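Data deposition worksheet. Section B asks for the primary sequence of the deposited chain exactly as it was used as input, without tags or linkers unless they were present during the calculation. Section C holds the resulting structure in token form. Section D is free text for depositor observations; keep each observation to a single sentence. Incomplete worksheets are returned to the depositor.
Section A, Depositor: J.P.
Section B:
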Amino acid sequence: MSDDLNMAEKFKRGCISVLVGAVAIYCAVGVIESIWPTVALILGIAGVIALLVGAVTLYRKNAFRVVDEITSIQH
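Section C:
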């Protein structure tokens, strides 16, 4: 009889653990849904800034290379 009670208690604890886990996941998804637009906006702005910095860096690097080639041809 005590084995049945022990198994029932284990089953009950397992069910409660699954329920608590499901509630935790539900709350986490709710938090992520509420902050997602802000995070997406911040990442988008950071991506645009990174692209602009990269483009300016490449432009300057290539512009100096062209100037060096022009001055070496003239001399």
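Section D:
Helices lie at 2-74.
The CA atoms of residues 36 and 42 lie 10 Å apart.
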